[in-house]
Structure of diguanylate cyclase:
Amino acid sequence: MDMLQTIDVGLVVLDKAYNIQVWNSFMENHSGLVPTQVKDKNLFTLFPSIDEDWFKRKAETVFLLKNRSFIAWEQKPYLMRFKNYRPITGTEAFMYQNVTISPLASADGQIGHICIIIYDVTDIASNRKALESANAELARLSRTDRLTQLFNRGFWEECLVKEFNRFQRYQHTCSLIMFDIDHFKRVNDTYGHQAGDEVIKTVSEVLRSCLRKTDIAGRYGGEEFGVILVDTDTEGAQIFAERLRAAIEALTVRYETTTIRFTISLGVSALELGIPNYKAWLERADQALYKSKHLGRNKTTLFVPE
């Protein structure tokens, strides 16, 4: 019993009615309840946060089959919510726990009690979460354009391929917008590349404010952008494009002591049967974009097959 009191794991013994018979020092220290307070008390009365039905299903298999049962923190973060006192992982709100439920046989071989062993695995859980968070951030950075925080060309083009393939199967409505900043070279030559970067960032901010959750926007390269409008026909895409064009036209970008005004030109192409591949779809939107340029810029042009 002295050993059970000093080990650095929680140890609880329950009878078949789920009344507590043993409660070691680990449990006392973390729960604030001394053994005399919990002896012969029902586990679920003392800890109502425990899912009674779920725990009984786990425990009944131990009583019946006389085999151990395990609960990993990935399945359920904890059995009893204890505060986390770990100095290194002190940012965690609670103690993460692995739990083992073992049968305890009496002299006649009957299982009248079960033993719950609770392991503090907060360090392991915290490190795993930090690693997963870092991997998620690396994945995000690998598909994000650093200047605009939009998708980069590689990932955006992967999305374009997926939408094209989805159309081939389901024929859902989908439209593509390609646009770029008018006379952007003049902005760079007149005000400098840092001012040009500020213009690009401002365009991306306005674009993000116009997007729905299902829309997919990316920086295609330099001052050119692409937007995939899922479940949007030509009319809806034109409305989106005109709203974006008008918002950009009304903008004034201030860089240091300089005021910069600019416009964008846009091309729209709806996805249709007969388009052989995603590159042809992209080419149609580009053709419409360059027609907007030819017609005087600051325009939206729909692709119309000749």
User: Anything to note?
Assistant: Residues 122-142 form the longest helix (21 residues).
